[in-house]
Recover the amino acids of this structure.
């Protein structure tokens, strides 16, 4: 990986984090959705950087495209652009600072582990990066990953049935 | 890669349940709305078939399939049999209960079957991807099943709480799997730590830690147990019965696959941690159960406490004892829930508080006896299966040098007698109150209760039957 | 052969089956006689097995494996039954006295709405107790051990209309479970040490390895003894037995005097080879037994309930047996177990007859001795039975209790001065409370209408009294001083040197006992004294059994309740109000607050999970 690529990766990582935070903290649902679009797009660029063009295109087309349009559409339809201002119920004010402390602690443990372990480079046992052309992806999905693929299909079916059960007026 | 017959046989129970649930979905369309119990019986037949298939495969030797993604050993097929049987018993419980509450819907059984298909996949998982997919496949239908009594508020609350905390836990699980992959470059449970210089890699350790968090949630181990009482209490009792038994078994199947079946050579790393979690789970589960007046909630804490005992066996690296314990626990708990589903059915109103059971033993001696036997088995009194199960896990712990854990287990189970006996006392000793309605008759439910009670005694008196089926536990395929 | 050996257990089970299935059709008498007949059949088979062992020149044990049970790796356990000299004696006690008490119960429980259930439980008890004594390994013994505990629980709470009785049943069960913790751990320790749970293999290994096992034997025997303190009601776990008197009187006689409570002594005798390797444990056993004997004996001095006197007396006599076991005098211990089974069952059944006869006035407590008096003339057979039982208990020669108690005192005299002092004092106290009870119940003038209208019980009840009285009189002949029959009978198992009668010692205690009886007679010539002396001070202290129960309530139960409620409040805010009583206002308000904010709760669940994740990952990083 060249120096320039390395710098780009760091930049993209920072952007990805920032957009995720923006999604979490925004009180306006439309802004939040837009932050999510940004986040997905950054992800797509990172995939490109890792030489996975098919995944990048899919990410843009499916997530940043189709799914987000659906999200924004639903938000508009429900008129739920603005969330209620963050309420801080009495007696529960401790929750937020505590959550932040714990999250930082988890991060710190992970960071410490990473830095104290010498292996930032991937270990030699990592398989060579596969050919990521659509055709190769197809071979992968219907070859070694056939079972997971079918399970995912079943999972989507379950989610669909579930959504119908929960939304149907009884 | 072509699929061959070995691949199919390896996960035949999963395949049959999965295909069957799709078939059920179609069949349900053809069944008129007022004859929904036909769907229920079809689902029962499906699960019976799957159980028989899994049972017939028990004798086959250990082998991997789908390029090592799944593994098939006697333990896996036994767990498949157990889970399908639990599903079958649950369906018997639902027929009357769900009808009275207006949730005798085709989707109920489709979702139940889908969830079971996920469970029968988890039991065979030899790869973290399959493990994750199996767990999600079993969880998502359950989220919906908890809320199926919509618009009952408690049912919705139960589903929402389970979903939110479950999604949170899934996050940990996925992150852990990602880190494990990052450290080892593989998702296979057999080879992950086998790569050179990897087993001590902090990245791998954190990954495994986060996987344990996610699985700890599924089995409701302390401190990842908080969802269980709320969810168990609010969900329809038939769903609670299923979750307290089948989900627990599947969660432990996943834990066993990761810790006993996979990660060879890492026992010394995880053993103290699992032992500590087991200890905390036994203490907290039993202590909190002491104060409960609500029977469903008490059984929720009891299920947490029993997860603690099973974890003792996990910590001791004794697969057989864990599987035996879970089998006994599952049938015992099903017997208890059979009684709960019977009470108050006529009103459609849940009778969860202990008071509602006063005088049960006198008005309906047989139902009262089932409840009492379930409680005695949960305490661990011979000759019920609860005793043998506890004996096995404690002995495994002592044999592994975890004496303190065995002592703690025996102590907490002595404490547990107090709250289980309170149930027996109320049922047999108090005068029945006029407000407590008589249980409604239901032949399938009675059959379910009879099956469960028979299992409690048969397994307690002749545990050899089961031990030979479970086999010698999970052995890593790589030395 | 297997079937024949197992049949003493199977007969009662058959009785249960028949009574459950066709009990309604048989009617009250049919149920009672059926249940009694099966126990008599068990007794007959036990006699035959006894004869078989006796007929063998070596007294070789009859040993059968009925069914395989557990076969998991090194753990091989089967449902094996062992009839050797020790277990055959126990079998005869259980089935013999059991049969008599079954017959007695037909009269005593007459008219009870749950007559059928009572006999089902009683038969279940006989089957369980036989499983306990016939087991050929520790695990089957434990199965019987737990089952008799279960029967005891069911029978104590039998008259469940009163919540008090049910609570007594649960107390008995939970206290026993504490003892069982020790027993289970002891069994695990035995398995770890010897790799087997079979008596034969374990004791063979003990014999072979001897002193090399001292450390392990110390741990194992201490754990087993904890089990014994629960079942045989010793300090610190004896508190359940007096409360257990809430059950019907035949139950008190059978379970809480003659058989179940002696299980601990039987178990220690069975495992005596282990105990002999652990002198430290033996010291503790002897002291605990002797101390229990004295504490319970003095408590019996100030009880007003006719059955509670006998309950504390039972605890005290069990103390004698345990002390004897601790002194290594296992034959004396078994001998006292045997004679005590006769005379204490007799006393309880006689007390039951008194309670039965006192049923005239609904409003007087038929068990309170203050309401009695002058029953000797109205219930002559019962009176005679009670006198025989009482004198045997007080150790007056030539009744059975004299011989067995004397043997224990002699063993203590030669081994341990402190134990001897405690037991000697108890022997005198015993005579005192026997005298007090005899006078308060039977002599003087009737103090209430119930007592005045008391009547003798029917023949079905008095006949067992007579049979037991014969046993209480003649039981001493079974082991006369200087190596009697029992001594020789148990010789293949317990090699112990027989001691001749120590005449000065025996005469001394006989004189003291008779004197104590006379003193009691003089003290209670005015029966009002009994009510007065328990009002305060030492009397109250003794009446409340040295306040040990109260101390438990303060030191153990209360804090435990507090911790569990607080735990449940903090961890589980969905708790109902009913359980919140006694918890601080702060917690209640907190609970109310959080209950209104369900989403807040889920967030808290998430927080705790996050905390757990931090701890788990930190653990892995730290231990790496």
């Amino acid at each position: 990986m060249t120096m320039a690529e390395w710098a780009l990766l760091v930049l993209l990582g920072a952007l990805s984090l920032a957009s995720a935070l923006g999604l979490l903290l925004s009180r306006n649902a439309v802004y939040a959705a837009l932050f999510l679009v940004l986040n997905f797009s950054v992800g797509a660029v990172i995939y490109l950087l890792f030489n996975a063009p098919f995944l990048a295109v899919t990410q843009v087309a499916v997530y940043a495209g189709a799914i987000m349009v659906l999200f924004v559409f639903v938000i508009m339809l429900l008129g739920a652009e603005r969330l209620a201002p963050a309420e801080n119920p009495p007696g529960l004010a401790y929750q937020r600072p505590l959550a932040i402390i714990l999250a930082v602690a988890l991060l710190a443990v992970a960071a410490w582990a990473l830095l104290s372990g010498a292996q930032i480079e991937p270990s030699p046992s990592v398989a060579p990066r596969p050919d990521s052309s659509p055709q190769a992806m197809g071979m992968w999905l219907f070859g070694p990953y056939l079972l997971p693929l079918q399970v995912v299909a079943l999972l989507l079916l379950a989610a669909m049935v579930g959504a119908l059960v929960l939304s149907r007026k009884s | 890669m072509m699929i061959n017959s070995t691949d199919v046989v390896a996960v035949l129970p999963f395949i049959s349940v999965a295909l069957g649930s799709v078939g059920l979905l179609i069949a349900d369309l053809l069944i008129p709305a007022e004859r929904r119990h036909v769907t229920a019986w079809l689902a029962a037949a499906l699960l019976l078939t799957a159980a028989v298939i899994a049972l017939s495969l028990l004798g086959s030797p250990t082998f991997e399939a789908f390029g090592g993604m799944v593994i098939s050993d006697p333990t896996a097929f036994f767990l498949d049999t157990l889970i399908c049987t639990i599903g079958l018993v649950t369906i018997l419980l639902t027929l009357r209960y769900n009808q009275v509450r207006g949730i005798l819907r085709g989707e109920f059984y489709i979702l139940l079957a889908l969830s079971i298909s996920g469970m029968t996949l988890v039991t065979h998982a030899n790869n973290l991807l399959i493990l994750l997919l199996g767990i999600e496949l079993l969880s998502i239908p359950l989220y919906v099943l908890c809320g199926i009594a919509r618009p009952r508020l408690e049912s919705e609350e139960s589903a929402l709480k389970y979903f939110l905390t479950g999604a949170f836990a899934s996050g940990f699980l996925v992150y852990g799997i990602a880190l494990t992959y990052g450290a080892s470059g593989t998702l296979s449970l057999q080879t992950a730590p086998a790569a050179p210089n990897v087993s001590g890699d902090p990245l791998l350790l954190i990954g495994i830690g986060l996987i344990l968090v996610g699985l700890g949630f599924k089995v409701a181990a302390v401190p990842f147990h908080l969802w269980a009482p709320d969810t168990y209490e609010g969900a329809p009792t038939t769903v609670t019965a299923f979750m307290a038994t089948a989900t627990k078994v599947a969660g432990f199947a996943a834990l066993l696959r990761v810790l006993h079946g996979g990660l060879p050579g890492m026992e010394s790393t995880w053993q103290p941690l699992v032992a500590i979690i087991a200890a905390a789970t036994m203490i907290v589960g039993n202590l909190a159960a002491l104060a409960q007046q609500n029977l469903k909630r008490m059984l929720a804490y009891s299920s947490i406490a029993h997860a603690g005992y099973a974890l003792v066996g996990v910590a001791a690296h004794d697969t057989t004892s864990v599987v035996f314990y879970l089998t006994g626990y599952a049938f015992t708990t099903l017997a208890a829930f059979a009684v709960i589903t019977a009470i108050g059915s006529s009103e459609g109103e849940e009778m969860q508080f202990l008071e509602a059971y006063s005088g049960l033993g006198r008005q309906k001696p047989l139902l009262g006896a089932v409840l009492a036997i379930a409680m005695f088995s949960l305490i661990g009194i011979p000759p019920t299966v609860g005793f043998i199960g506890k004996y096995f896990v404690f002995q495994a712990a002592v044999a592994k040098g975890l004496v303190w854990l065995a002592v703690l287990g025996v102590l907490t189970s002595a404490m547990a007698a107090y709250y289980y006996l309170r149930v027996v006392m109320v049922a047999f000793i108090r005068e029945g109150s006029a407000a407590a309605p008589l249980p409604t008759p239901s032949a399938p439910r009675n059959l379910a209760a009879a099956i469960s009670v028979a299992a409690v005694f048969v397994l307690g008196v002749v545990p050899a039957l089961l031990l030979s089926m479970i086999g010698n536990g999970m052995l890593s395929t790589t030395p | 052969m297997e079937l024949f050996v197992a049949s003493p257990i199977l007969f009662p089970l058959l009785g249960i089956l028949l009574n459950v299935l066709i009990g309604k059709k048989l009617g009250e008498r049919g149920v009672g006689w059926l249940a009694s007949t099966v126990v008599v059949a068990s007794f007959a088979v036990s006699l035959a097995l006894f004869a078989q062992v006796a007929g063998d020149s070596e007294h070789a044990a009859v040993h059968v494996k009925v069914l395989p049970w557990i076969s998991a790796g090194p753990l091989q356990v089967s449902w094996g039954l062992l009839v050797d000299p020790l277990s055959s004696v126990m079998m005869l006690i259980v089935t013999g006295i059991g049969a008599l008490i079954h017959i007695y119960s037909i009269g005593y429980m007459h008219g009870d709405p749950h007559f059928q259930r009572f006999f089902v439980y009683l038969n279940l008890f006989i089957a369980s107790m036989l499983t306990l004594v016939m087991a050929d390994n520790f695990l089957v013994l434990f199965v019987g051990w737990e089952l008799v505990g279960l029967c005891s629980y069911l029978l104590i709470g039998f008259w469940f209309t009163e919540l008090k009785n049910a609570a007594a049943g649960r107390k008995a069960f939970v206290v026993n479970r504490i003892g069982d913790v020790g027993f289970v751990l002891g069994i695990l320790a035995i398995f770890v040490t010897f790799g087997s749970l079979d008596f034969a293999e374990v004791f063979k290994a003990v014999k072979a390895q001897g002193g090399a096992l001292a450390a392990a034997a110390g741990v194992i025997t201490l754990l087993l003894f904890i089990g014994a303190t629960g079942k045989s009601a010793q300090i610190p776990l004896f508190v359940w037995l007096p409360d257990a008197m809430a059950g019907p009187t035949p139950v008190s006689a059978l379970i809480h005097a003659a058989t179940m409570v002696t299980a601990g002594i039987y178990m220690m005798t069975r495992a005596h080879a282990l105990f002999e390797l652990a002198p430290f444990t033996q010291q503790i056993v002897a002291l605990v037994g002797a101390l229990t004997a004295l504490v319970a004996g003095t408590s019996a001095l100030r009880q007003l309930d006719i059955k509670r006197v006998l309950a504390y007396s039972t605890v005290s006599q069990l103390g004698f047996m345990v002390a004897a076991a601790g002194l290594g005098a296992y034959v004396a211990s078994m001998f006292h177990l045997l004679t005590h089974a006769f005379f204490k069952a007799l006393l309880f059944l006689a007390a039951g007859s008194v309670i039965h006869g006192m049923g005239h006035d609904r409003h007087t407590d038929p068990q309170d001795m203050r309401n009695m008096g002058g029953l000797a003339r109205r219930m002559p057979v019962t009176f005679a039975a009670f006198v025989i039982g009482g004198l045997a208990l007080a150790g007056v020669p030539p009744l059975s209790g004299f011989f067995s108690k004397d043997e224990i005192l002699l063993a203590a005299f030669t081994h341990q001065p402190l134990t001897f002092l405690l037991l000697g004092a108890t022997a005198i106290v015993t005579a005192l409370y026997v005298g007090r009870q005899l006078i308060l119940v039977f002599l003087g003038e009737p103090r209430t209408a119930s007592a005045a209208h008391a009547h003798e019980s029917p023949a079905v009840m008095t006949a067992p009294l007579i049979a037991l009285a014969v046993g209480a009189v003649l039981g001493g002949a079974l082991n006369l001083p200087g190596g009697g029959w029992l001594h020789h009978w148990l010789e293949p198992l317990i090699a112990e040197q027989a001691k001749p009668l120590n005449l000065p010692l025996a005469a001394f205690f006989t004189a003291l006992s008779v004197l104590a009886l006379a003193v009691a007679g003089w003290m209670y010539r005015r029966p009002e004294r009994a009510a007065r002396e328990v009002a305060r001070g030492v009397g109250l202290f003794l009446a409340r059994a040295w306040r040990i129960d109260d101390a438990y309530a303060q030191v153990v139960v209360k804090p435990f309740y507090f911790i569990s409620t607080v735990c449940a409040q903090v961890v589980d805010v969905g708790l109902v109000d009913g359980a919140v009583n006694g918890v601080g206002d702060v917690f209640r308000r907190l609970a109310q607050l959080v209950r209104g904010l369900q989403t807040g709760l889920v967030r808290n669940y998430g927080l705790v999970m996050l905390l757990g994740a931090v701890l788990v990952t930190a653990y892995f990083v730290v231990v790496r």
Observations:
- Chain A has six helices and no strands.
